[in-house]
Amino acid sequence: MDLTQCRQPYLRSSLSRKDLRADPLDQFSLWFTEARDTTAEVENAMTLATVDAQGMPSVRTVLLKALTAKGFVFFTHYLSQKGCDLADNPQAALLFQWLHLERQVRVQGIAHKLTPAESADYFLSRPRDSQLAVWAAQQSSELTSRAELEDAFQAAMTRFADQAVPVPQDWGGFCIQPDQMEFWQGRASRMHDRFVYQRQGQHWQIQRLAP
Predict the structure, then answer these.
(1) How does strand 103-113 pair with strand 203-209?
(2) H-run or E-run covering 148
(3) pTM above 0.90, yes or no
(4) What is the mean pLDDT of the chain?
């Protein structure tokens, strides 16, 4: 398969130092709002990279469910592969891609578990079927068939038929607190704009990077 002619011109916008907010989370909020307002795609999709105890990296797409003053929040089974990876090594990386805006944001930081109360607040806001799905399957565990999964979902429906669905003890949220964030804006002739924020104590240092 020859993909050498798959080329994309980047002509939509530019990014300069004077455009940037002092805090990268504020800059992210600005770009996220623009992405949300200009596309029907899943603007809160983010790629999460983790590393296991043996040093093997793993990557998958998850959904950003909150942006707080501390960082980026998502939810998962704590015994899933990503949950176990983060228990062994809390260093993680995120990637947001908004291709229609010719932009991407890279995040590196440390994962912290949310409190049980914070995880419960989000769990109870989910549709009931989504709550039942958490009970139906231990994420990343092996299944013998699709029927096993569907049977487990029916069993969860029966188990909690006349009551609110409780929060499983092995499910909850993580917050990725960034130490570094990079903002990338595509430009013509591959002369892209890249700016990286590095945490320096309570402040952020901003540098332009070569494309």
Answers:
(1) unpaired
(2) helix 146-159
(3) yes
(4) 95
